[in-house]
Amino acid sequence: xxxxxxxxxxxxxxxxxxxxxxxxxxxxxxxxxxxxxxxxxxxxxxxxxxxxxxxxxxxxxxxxxxxxxxxxxxxxxxxxxxxxxxxxxxxxxxxxxxxxxxxxxxxxxxxxxxxxxxxxxxxxxxxxxxxxxxxxxxxxxxxxxxxxxxxxxxxxxxxxxxxxxxxxxxxxxxxxxxxxxxxxxxxxxxxxxxxxxxxxxxxxxxxxxxxxxxxx
Length: 216
Ligand code: DX5
Ligand code: ZN
Known about the structure:
Layout: E1 3-6, H1 16-25, E2 30-36, H2 48-56, E3 61-67, H3 75-81, E4 85-89, H4 96-105, E5 109-114, E6 132-136, H5 151-164, E7 170-174, H6 182-188, E8 192-195, H7 197-200, H8 205-213
Parallel strand pairs: 1-8, 2-3, 3-4, 4-5, 5-6, 6-7, 7-8
Helix pairs in contact: 2-3
Bound molecules: D-xylitol-5-phosphate and zinc ion.
Zinc ion binds near residues 7, 32 and 34.
């Protein structure tokens, strides 16, 4: 069964406590938290103080997706704020291997995210060190965009690399995931689905999460 990670970026920030409660009661596995710095991506979202509060509102896994430059400067701060898993972008890291080791030494699960233009083959020499790869299926920075179809091929290629080496690495897909395309994304080889607007803009978010969870 897929791991479902709703993205709080699409939630109502005025009602954050209730949104967290809804996710706690739902079949969501992880809370996906999108941090944007206005430099790596052309948008600014939320940061450490907000994550600290969300941490207090759930015992579920806090999966933090850093869309920021120089993420190594903030690794420890995000750990302290409550992150269980930390994802950094390949395109934002000059010393990716060092950054991944730093995340793991702090006791978090480590992942690398790839923008739509970055081939999965760029992970050839780091894959064995990763707990997860996040394949962006839209250009990062905004919720509510459409899924880029070429992502299917990237998922299949990455799945093959992981399978051939017998690794336990998870594949996470982020951007434009809906109850309609979830099945095909999972069949291509994904393990974790991030969904923002599809969940929070739906009439019954818990039912939408359930539908994503049961997609095959
Ligand atoms: C985009 C973020 C995503 C976003 C997904 O930069 O990384 O997590 O919130 O939103 P939807 O599901 O609406 O595409
Ligand atoms: Zn994200």
